Amino acid sequence: TQLILRPRLSLHRLILALIIFCLLSMEAPPLPFSRLRQVKAVDNSRTDPVVLVFVESIYSQLGQEIVAILESSRFHYRTEIAPGKGDMPTLTERNRGRYTLIIYENVLKYVNLDAWNRDLLDKYCTEYGVGVIGFFKANENSLLSAQLKGFPLFLHSHLGLRDYRINPNAPLLYITKPNQVEQGPLPGDDWTIFQSNHSTYEPVLLASTKSSEALSHFGPSPLRALHATVVQDLGLHDGIQRVLFGNNLNYWLHKLVFVDAIAYLTGKRLCLSLDRHILVDVDDIFVGKEGTRMKVSDVEALLNTQNKLRGLVPNFTFNLGFSGKFYHTGTDEEDQGDDMLLQHRMDFWWFPHMWSHMQPHLFHNVSVLAEQMRLNKIFAQEHGIPTDMGYAVAPHHSGVYPVHSQLYEAWKSVWGIKVTSTEEYPHLRPARYRRGFIHNGIQVLPRQTCGLFTHTIFYNEYPGGSKELDKSIRGGELFLTVLLNPISIFMTHLSNYGNDRLGLYTFESLVKFVQCWTNLRLQTLPPVQLAERYFQIFPEERDPLWQNPCHDKRHKDIWSKEKTCDRLPKFLVIGPQKTGTTALHSFLSLHPAITSSFPSPITFEEIQFFSGVNYDNGIDWYMDFFPFPSNVSTDFMFEKSANYFDTEVAPKRAAALLPRAKILAVLINPSDRAYSWYQHQRAHQDPAALNNTFHEVVTAGPSAPRDVLALQRRCLNPGVYASHLERWLQHYQPSQLHIVDGALLRSNPALVMEGIQRFLSVTPIFNYTQALIYDDSKGFWCQRVEGGRAKCLGKSKGRKYPEMSPESRAFLAEYYREHNMELLRLLNRLGQSLPSWLRQELQSTSWS
Ligand SMILES: *[C@@H]1O[C@H](CO)[C@@H](O)[C@H](O)[C@H]1NC(C)=O
Ligand SMILES: *[C@@H]1O[C@H](CO)[C@@H](O)[C@H](O)[C@H]1NC(C)=O
Ligand SMILES: *[C@@H]1O[C@H](CO)[C@@H](O)[C@H](O)[C@H]1NC(C)=O
Ligand SMILES: *[C@@H]1O[C@H](CO)[C@@H](O)[C@H](O)[C@H]1NC(C)=O
Ligand SMILES: *[C@@H]1O[C@H](CO)[C@@H](O)[C@H](O)[C@H]1NC(C)=O
Ligand SMILES: *[C@@H]1O[C@H](CO)[C@@H](O)[C@H](O)[C@H]1NC(C)=O
Ligand SMILES: [Zn+2]
C-alpha cells in the first residue's frame, strides 16, 4: 500500500494514485525499519534528551522558528552553525549519544557535508537510531531539477502549488488528522517537490501544481498530479530515518507536521500526549464601560455557545471573574445583562477579581487589602455566586509576579485561594517562555493571550484587520498555543462577549479548527484540578526563580512603591565553608564604603538564601536583610553565605536575581578544608565525627554507615573546586568572579584586601595595613582597635586542633590531584593568579 512517486508519472498511475489517496483508510502504520533493530541508548540518564539543530546563522529566520517550537515544547536543544568542513560537534560522550534528533535548517548543508563528517554523522545516526529532519528552501541560485546528492530522490524547485492534502498512510502522523484538504493556492512560488521510485520514501504532504505549464519538465501529462512536498524516509535506503520539507515552516501545516516528525523520530520521547486542557477566563465581569458590556442577548449567546462547545469539549465552562463594585453600572440593557448572568450563575464557574478592580500591589497593609477582598466576597454571598473555586486573578497581574506577599496572604485568608494565573512569569514576552510556580501554597499557572483585549470589540476593527484574528485561529499563534501547551488558560474580558462577541467567535472557531485538523482531545477542568495536573506534567516548575522586579518595565510598574530594588547586594562571598570566609566578612565590614547584610537570628552573619529553604520566602524576605540605601552612607552592600559555593541551585538562583553581582570565592588547600570541616563537626558533637578518625571518614568505602558517608561528602565534595566554579561560570562572566587565596588571606590580609577592593572598584581604597593587627596569642590578624589592641573573632573561629596525619594528607593529596589540576587549568584560562597553596600542592604531588 506504499504510494511510490515516480519521476515520470504515467496517466493511469496518476489516476491510481489519486484513487489510493481518496480511499486509503487510516490503518495502523507499518513498523519502520530501524525500530526493529537494536540501537544504542542516547544519553537520557542525567539530562533530558537534547535536539541538535544546525542553523545557517544565529539570525536565520527558519532557524529561529525551529528553535521557537522546541522552546515552546520545553524540549532541550543545542544550536550549532552548520559546519562546512571539519568541525562537526562531538556527538557522543562516554560511549553515549548526546543528541536524540538532528535538525538541519538547510538540508543541502547535510547532503553536501564532506565525506568524513557525513560518515561520522551517518554512523552516529545508525548506531544510536537517531533521525534527521531537513528543510529545502529554494533560492534564486538553486536548480530547478536535480537529484539530491547521494539519495534516490529528485527535487523540483520554484513551483507554485495548490490544494494541500495529507497522506493518511504517512507513519509519522500522530496529532495531525489526515482527512482534510486545504483548498486553494499555497502561498509563494518557491515550493520544492520530491520524487522517487524508492520505497523508502513515503509522502506526507502533497499538493497539485498551480498551472499545467509548470508540469512541462516532468513530462507531457496535462493533468494536475499530486506531488509530495514533505516526505518521510523510512530508513530502507541507508538505515537512517528522515523527514524532508520542501519549504520552510511558514505554512502552518508544516509546523503541525514538524511537531509530529519530532515525536516520530524520537520514538515519542519528545512528545506530548494528545490531551489538551483549556480554560477560558472572562475577566472584568461588571467592570466594562457603558456600551461595551453584555446585554441579555449576549448572555443568551454565551450560554448557547457554552452548550455547543460542551459537545466538543466535555464540561466546557466559561470561568467568570467579577468585581462586585461595578454591578449595575451599565446602561439599562446592560444592567439587565448583569442580572441575566447572575440568574444563570450556576451554569458558570466564578472567581474574584478584586472588589473595585484595584491593583493589589498598591496595598501595603495586608488588612486593608483583605478588607477590599471581603467586600467582593460579601457581594458574592449576597448574589449566590459560588465562592469555593479556590481560584483568583489579580487585575493587571499585580502582586502575583513579582510577588507581593500581602496579596498571597490576603487571598488565602479571605478566599482560601489555591490557584492563580499570570502572563508575567518569568516575563510577558516571549509567550513561549511563560511558566508556572508555587509560592506560599498558591499555585501560579501561566496564562495565555488569545489576541482579544479589552478594546477588541468589533470584528472589523481587529488590529491589522479581521484576517489577522482568523490567521491566528487557523494555524497561527492561537492554534500553536493549544498545539504546544498541554494546559492553556486564556485571558478574555467582559467586553469580548458584548457587541460582536469576539470571544465566542474565537473559541468556537478554534475548537472546530483543532478538531478538524488534529487528533487532540480537548478537555477542561476546574482550576484547582487543572493546577494539580499542570504540576504533575511539569514538576520541575514548582520552584520559582526570583528575578529583580526592576529589570522588567512591566514588573516595575506592578511593584510596590514602598519597596525598592536597591536593597540587594552588589557582591556575594560564596564560600566554601572553612576557608576563612568569616574573617573575610569581618574585614569587609570594616570598610567604610561597604555594608554587610544584617545578621540572622538563626544563621548569624549568613543569610543562606540561594542555597536552601529560605529561598521559598521570596525576595521581600531577602531584602529585609539589607538596609534602605537611603538610611546608610553607602549602598555597596554584600552578603556572605559559605554554602552557596557548592550548592547545585545557588548560581542559577543568584544570577536570576543578581545578574550583575560580583562573586568572591575563597580557596585553601582542599585537604586542609576537609580536615577543618571534620574538626568543626567534632566541635559540634557530630557522632560520626566523634566516633571515627578523620582517616576513617575520608577513606570510608561505600558500605560505611550513612552518617559517616554523609560526613565524608561534606568533607570532600566542596573541595572539588573547579567543577563548582564551572557551575558558577555557567551563570556569571569570568570578569565577575574573583578567587581569593585563603592561605594568603590568613598570612597577609592587607595585601588580599587591596586586591579585592580593586576587583570591586570600591572607593576610597581602605588601608587594611592600618586597620588590622596581628594577634600573637591567637595567631591571626584581627581588627586594630583603640590603643592598638586586637579585637578578634569569637573563640569558635580559629580553633586549635592536632595536625592532620601524614597518611591522611597523602591520601587526600592523591584524591584531589586531578581536581587541583583542573583548577590550575581553569584559573589559567580565566587569567586569575594561582594561589600559593595550589602551586605547592601541584609541585609536591607531581613527584610523588
Ligand atoms: C528507479 O529509477 C532509476 C532511474 O530512473 C532506475 O535506474 C531504477 O531501476 C528504478 N528502480 C526501481 C526500483 O524501479
Ligand atoms: C464533567 O463534570 C462532571 C462533574 O464535575 C464529572 O463527574 C465528569 O467526570 C466530567 N466529565 C468529563 C468528561 O470530564
Ligand atoms: C493596617 O490597617 C489597619 C486598619 O486600617 C490598622 O489598624 C493597622 O494598624 C494597619 N497596620 C499597619 C502595620 O500599618
Ligand atoms: C530606613 O528608612 C525607612 C524609610 O526610608 C524608614 O521607614 C526606616 O525606619 C529606616 N530604617 C532604619 C533601620 O533606620
Ligand atoms: C559511637 O560509638 C559508640 C562506641 O563504639 C557506640 O556505642 C555508639 O552507638 C556510636 N554512636 C554512633 C552514633 O554511631
Ligand atoms: C597604609 O598604611 C601604611 C602604614 O600606615 C603605609 O605604610 C602604607 O603606605 C599605606 N598604604 C597605602 C596603600 O596607602
Ligand atoms: Zn481586569
Please name the defining characteristics of this protein.
binds zinc ion, TIM Barrel, flat, nine-stranded mixed beta sheet, 31 strands, single chain, six-stranded parallel beta sheet, 848 residues, 3 domains, 27 helices, binds 2-acetamido-2-deoxy-beta-D-glucopyranose, alpha/beta, Rossmann fold
Descriptive notes:
This protein is α/β, with parallel strands linked by helices and 848 residues long. The chain has three domains: 51-266, 3-Layer(aba) Sandwich (Rossmann fold); 275-541, Glycoside hydrolase/deacetylase (TIM Barrel), CATH 3.20.20.370; 564-843, 3-Layer(aba) Sandwich (Rossmann fold), CATH 3.40.50.300. Helix content is 34%, strand content 18%. It is built from 27 helices and 31 strands. The strands form seven sheets. Strands 2-1-5-6-14-13-12-9-10 form a nine-stranded mixed sheet. Strands 15, 16, 17, 21, 22 and 23 form a six-stranded parallel sheet that branches. Strands 25-26-24-27-28 form a five-stranded parallel sheet. Helix 7 (332-343) links the parallel strand 16 and strand 17 (349-352). The longest helix is centred in the C-terminal third of the chain and has 25 residues, at 806-830. The protein is flat, with a radius of gyration of 33 Å. The chain starts with 10 loop residues before the first helix and ends with a helix. Disulfide bonds join 782-792. Keywords: Disulfide bond, Glycoprotein, Golgi apparatus, Hydrolase, Membrane, Multifunctional enzyme, Signal, Signal-anchor, Transferase, Transmembrane, Transmembrane helix. Belongs to the sulfotransferase 1 family. NDST subfamily. It comes from Anabas testudineus. Pfam families: HSNSD-CE, HSNSD_N, Sulfotransfer_1.
